[in-house]
Here is the input.
Amino acid sequence: MRILIVKLSSLGDVVHTMPAVQDLASALPQARIDWVVERAFAPLAQRCAGVERVIVCDLRRWRKAPWSAATGLQWRDFKADLQRHDYDAIIDLQGLSKSAWVSWLARLSAGGRRYAMAHRTDGSAYEAPTRWVADVAISLERHVHAVHRSRLLCAHALGYDLAGAPRYGLQTPVGVPVAVPVGGPPAPADLARPCVVLAHGTSRADKQWPLEHWLELAAALESAGFGLALPHGSDEEEQRSQWLAQRCRHAQVWPRLSLDALLESMRGCAGVIGVDSGLSHMAVALGLAHVQIYNFDTAWRTGPEPAEPALSRRQVSVYAEPTPSVESVWQAWRGVLAA
Here is the structure.
């Protein structure tokens, strides 16, 4: 049996899809699973245990220059790659027009079917072409965590029961470099300090935590014997990282890293404290000690859903409006360490 997963973006959504792939591989061990994903997030799909082939697309870039010669050539290559095999099941786990279009473009085997969600779930985007393209539209419970939604859809589509907590299957490739801090290696006095990643960056301003809060938290972490790692994915985030590092004694600004290098650098850290962002969701997938900060009551949908019951107190969310206090985040981190 050959299965195609369609989940194109974004970083957190791709992470949330990985447990569904683990379920498929476990329930249908003879199945061959391919995954269509945007190029920026392909390293995650390529690390996902059970995935045979990752089909890379560049829809975001193609939309910027749809009539260029380069786009035409890349589009033809993508279409040929997508249609290399016929699929017994094509499962749209995104529920948007773009994923419906990719599902429609992929080829079915004789008797094969396209599956998708029949409706929107609470707090999630959904577009009508999803249902128009599907041969089988599956109704799901509406108030459901993003991880569980993908797991349920695949289980209903292919007729198996879910068992156990989510597993991410995040494999480690060989030869991926780890971060070297800006300004060179850490000073010898810092080598003995376990490192906590402060994942302060997010593309949405309303998800940010105030810089002054980060600075106060950083001081508490340094006093407790931790070093700090400050990643960034944009110029604005780099400026925030530099601002924090200049006011801390044991902080390192990481260079702007590829997704592979970022994963491996995070894997070696003591834990992550971050806002609702792709980096925080990666921390969950890596099984790291983690506190996730929410300014909205949406942690039930995207917050830590640990892969193992033993991690249920080591990966937690903190929510308050307009934003959680430093004390609440600090106490959550202390609780994570105690667990």
Remarks:
- DSSP finds 13 helices and twelve strands in the chain.
